[in-house]
Write the structure tokens for this entry.
Amino acid sequence: MNPIEHLLIGWTFAQVMPLDRRDRAIVTIASVAPDIDGFGALPEMLTRGTAHEVFWWTEYHHTLCHNLTAAVIFTVAATFFAHARLRTALLAFVSFHLHLFGDVIGARGPDGYQWPIPYWLPFSDRWQWSWDGQWALNAWQNFAITIPLLLFTIWLAWKAGRSPLEIVSSRANEAFVAALRGRFGVPETQS
């Protein structure tokens, strides 16, 4: 799955329990955190064909942070930053795993490579999550998931006044909500 899908899945999942803005952000960030190990994509592209090629994306994406160890580290960090510590930590742990699950079912590369998830790294790489039915990153199934998530996100912004934009800027979130309410009217409970 692509990062936008992971973000929307995490944001939607953050709505299952009452959380404040910070805790919703933590749960949402947990759903994209495994892709931190994709940090090497740009250096790899920039050094391709040079005398000093680096293969940081090829070697480390879906390896460093797509495992139980990274999930536990992120969950512990989430606990320190959260207001509702136990609830947010639990949701962040599950949200992190929703990312892994999404990659197992829908992240096959254009070359047909099925990204396995080395779940027990760094302790063992013997067992890896994979599924032979894994659909391509640009397959219709990913669009079929993204569109309802996007519609829910827009509806929630209109109805409840919060969107994923609140993670980076309260003002951007307020402007987005105001634009939606200006176009579609103010919800009855907000009148």
The mean pLDDT is 94. The two ends are 39 Å apart (CA to CA).
